[in-house]
Amino acid sequence: MASEGRLRLKTLVMVSAMVICANAGDLMLKRAMLQIGAVELTAPGIAHAFRMTVTSGTLWIGIFFLGGFMLSYMTVLSWADYSYVMPAGAFGYALLTLLAVIFLHEAVSARRWVGVVLICVGVLLVGQTKPRTTDVSREALA
Amino acid sequence: MHVVLFLSFLIFGSTGGEIAITYGMKATGEPERLRPRELLRFLGKALCNTWFWAGVPLMALSFYALLVLLSWEPISFVIPASALSYVVGTLGAKYILREDVSAARWAGVVLVCAGVALVALG
Lengths: 142, 122
Known about the structure:
The complex is a heterodimer of chains A (142) and B (122). With 142 residues, chain A is mainly alpha-helical. Chain A has helices at residues 2-36, 43-54, 57-77, 82-89, 91-103, 110-128, 136-141.
């Protein structure tokens, strides 16, 4: 049972890293593009936007976080079920709503709150199940 | 009709891609420890896996379909509709990856799917 607990713990750590990196990455990209401004769809406009994006520190921080997301996603899938990781990752939508309320003081509709509650209950239900139901060693040999 | 076609590209592209990547990761095997050196070795091994590279173009197709759909339809339709991929992905996990999807996991997936659709509607 000790290994079951360890599996659950490292899955929780990796899924949390996934959710945090994906949200932080998206927020940084959004912030970088707000600093750069709307892209004009003309040759000089696109060239200007390209120069601005490759030199934007905020954008590179965003890309760094998205790289972190991909690595944690790949790592957790090396041991956990896809049908466990995929719904658990949706917790990010709920987290984003909470962050928007706390830091950006956004008004959130009743419908969106219902959605957040459904996601949290759904993630809790999935979280109760065993993170791995397939035999990894058998697949590694195949 | 085109919307249905691109929506199926979006849903089947993303779930197909993720299932291929999951298959590749299971074949790669988990890193022994979660230390930078072991993770780098793990990443190198994963990048040599054919299933990983089968998944990447499928996910690119799904991303392209998302962009096309967003140019036709409002985001309040596209994102809730794409939440169906939670259900399609779970079916794929059960029948392709042979994962044991219990009743509790199914109930969780359906709640998450409905919740994501509601959050996206705003």
